[in-house]
Every structure is written in C-alpha cells, then in structure tokens.
Design brief:
Chain lengths: ~80, ~300
C-alpha cells in the first residue's frame, strides 16, 4: 500500500465516507467538513499509522492532502 | 471594522474562514457581531487596542486551543494538570490572560456554540427582578457581566475572579460600556472556595469556571449555601473541551448533570451546543467539544 492509500483510509474514516477519493492536490476547501478539528484527528491517526510525530505548529499550515503527504514522506524517509 | 477584522483573521488562518463564514450566514448573527464591535470600540479605544490586536488575540487563542486539542486527541487528557499550574501559567499572567480573554470574548460572536450560550444567558436574565444581590463568579472577558448590568439597573453585584487580569479587563469594559453601573459593582480577587460572605444572592452567574478547577462539586456546594431560597444560578461548562487552562475533564453531559443534582440543584432549563453540527454518536466518538449551560434552582428536600 502506498502512503496515499493509507492516508485515504484515514480520511475516509474521519469524514465517514467510504467512497472518498483524495490526491495530492485535494484541499480543505474541497471537503465540506474538513476543519481544524478534522486536521487534528487526521494528524493523530497518521501519527499512529505511520509511527511519526507532527509538530504542534504544523496544525496551522496543513491545508491540503499534499501537505500531509510531504510531512509523512519526510518523516518516514519515503 | 468587521471586514477589516475578518479579512485579517481569514488571511492568517483559512480554516477559520470556512468555519466563521458558515456561522455568519445565520440570521441576526452579523448584526450581533456589528453591534458588539461598535460597542467594544469604546473600550478598545480607551485601552489602546486596535482591531488587529483583537484579531491577533483571537488567532492566538485559536492556536492555543488547537495545540491543547492535539494533545488531548493524542492522550485523552487535558494538557493542564492542576489548577495551581493554570493559575501560575495563565490567570496570574496579565499578558496571556488579557489576550486570551479578548479572543474568547470575540468568539461569542464568531462561534455557534459560544453564541448559543450567550443567547441562552440573555434569554435567561431577560425577566430577572432587579431585587436582592447578585454575584458573578469568574467574570472572564466581562461580556456576561455587561449583559447582566443592562438588565439589573439598581441592585449591587459582587464579582469574584481568581485572576487580577480578568478583574482589570472586566472593570475596564464596564467603565467604558456601562459606566453608570461601576458604583454598584464590588470586585474581589479571590478563589470562590475561600469566599466568606454574610450575603445571600438572588442570582449567581458562574460561566465557564467549573472546568478550570480540580473539584467543581465543591464550588457548586458552596454556591448552594449563599443562594437565596428562591434564587437561581446560571452555570455553564463543557465536555471534552481541552484548552490551555482547563483542568477538570467532563467526559459527558450526564456527568455534568449528575454533579448538579448531587450538589442539590434541579435544572430548570438548559442549552447544549456542540462545536460541530453532527450526530451525538460522532460527537462522542470524536470527543468533540460540547458546551452546556443551565439555569439551576434548589432541589426540593
């Protein structure tokens, strides 16, 4: 499974939408319930899934799936 | 002024734009915000606070809340372990407390859950009799106190807050916005649990205090002793609402209601306002903040 596949599963769980499709360019504006609370839930789920830690300040700067992918790939070295 | 404020906030935190824009589509909400900003301008001008300072205070509060929420989601616990640490780190820190209170005050007009609570308070005090003595515990940003003073034009009001910064802010707001009421106000910087008085109060306001202490039941019990026989208490608190100075973690609304009953009160009316509009199942699963407000009366023995 790719990082995007695993992240998609996290997004589907958070937004309770089993058909949700995301890609690098999906932004918070394109998913109705994507707010800062959802960002935090996705961060923590990603921390568990990828065994990494996000910095607190990163909550404010994450605005797209691409932002998540870059941080995860950076921390996991993929 | 509204446009300046919102543009500044949206530019720096786009997630806030999404949330606030939805809320401001509701009827009357924009009018309430404009009325607040117009009235608050008097206080801000006297205190040398610009609209951008207010926006920065709000953004700072949002950032603190996000950090606390992140920690809470990771651990299931509120990040502030004790009341003493909250006092040292927040209540006794003039700069931190003032900024936090300014931000929180503004959130009454930008967040649906805080707005619902404020509306509930306004409705609850609309028919209060201007008789007896009144008490506010934890005046915080001073906006609930100001609202009370617009209804209560004669009676004395005691105000207790553990934070000198909070008292200073409330005093300044009343001086700017309800100056004729200042002679009826008696401010005390004190912990409510050490408050000894010969007075009985016909109405007590205690908004967003219980979650800041380690033993909220003790506070409710102490209020019962100083409430008149037919008096009422406005109380508000929240479940699953981590922030930089919340200590006591109410996990459910029933836990709050049970504590109220244990303290010897009945709930006369209540408001429940979640931070997100979704099913109760999702609120519980995701531990989403739920704000709770109620009017209490003595339970019949």
């Amino acid at each position: 499974m790719t990082v995007l596949d695993r992240l998609t599963a996290i997004f589907r769980d958070e937004f309770e939408d089993s058909a949700l499709v995301i890609n690098d360019s999906t932004t918070a504006n394109q998913i109705e319930n994507w707010d800062s609370l959802a960002t935090i839930n996705i961060i923590v789920a990603s921390e568990w899934e990828f065994k990494i830690k996000f910095e607190n300040l990163e909550i404010q700067s994450i605005r797209s799936v691409g932002d998540f992918l870059r941080i995860i790939e950076d921390r996991t070295g993929r | 002024m509204r446009n300046q404020l919102l543009s500044y906030i949206y530019e720096r935190n786009p997630a806030q734009e999404k949330k606030i824009t939805v809320f401001l589509k509701q009827p009357q909400v924009l009018d309430e915000l404009d009325e607040f900003l117009t009235s608050y301008a008097g206080y801000m001008s006297v205190s040398g606070i610009t609209i951008y300072d207010l926006a920065d205070a709000y953004l700072g509060m949002v950032a603190e809340m996000c950090t606390a929420r992140l920690e809470f989601t990771r651990t299931g616990k509120y990040p502030m372990p004790t009341q003493d640490e909250a006092k040292k780190g927040v209540y006794d820190n003039q700069k931190v407390m003032t900024s936090f209170m300014l931000g929180l005050g503004l959130s009454q007009f930008l967040w649906s859950q805080h707005s619902s609570l404020f509306m509930f308070y306004k409705a609850s005090i609309s028919n209060l009799k201007d008789a007896g003595r009144f008490l506010e515990v934890g005046s915080g940003h001073g906006l609930f106190l100001k609202e009370l003073l617009t209804k209560i034009r004669k009676s004395d009001v005691d105000v207790i807050d553990i934070s000198a910064a909070s008292i200073k802010l409330s005093k300044e707001i009343i001086l700017a916005l309800e100056p004729s009421a200042i002679s009826r106000l008696h401010f005390l910087q004190q912990d409510i649990l050490t408050f000894i008085t010969a007075h009985k109060y016909s109405f007590i306001t205690i908004g967003e205090v219980l979650e800041h202490v380690e033993h909220p039941l003790d506070i409710l019990l102490s209020l019962r002793n100083i409430l008149t026989e037919n008096g009422r208490i406005y109380v508000s608190t929240c479940a699953n609402c981590p922030t930089l100075d919340h200590v006591f973690h109410f996990e459910t609304l029933d836990q709050i209601r049970d504590m109220i009953h244990t303290a010897g009160f009945e709930i006369e009316s209540e408001v429940v306002a979640p931070a997100e509009c979704c099913s109760m199942e999702r609120l519980i699963k995701k531990k989403i903040d739920i704000v709770f407000g109620a009017i209490l009366k003595r339970k019949l023995q």
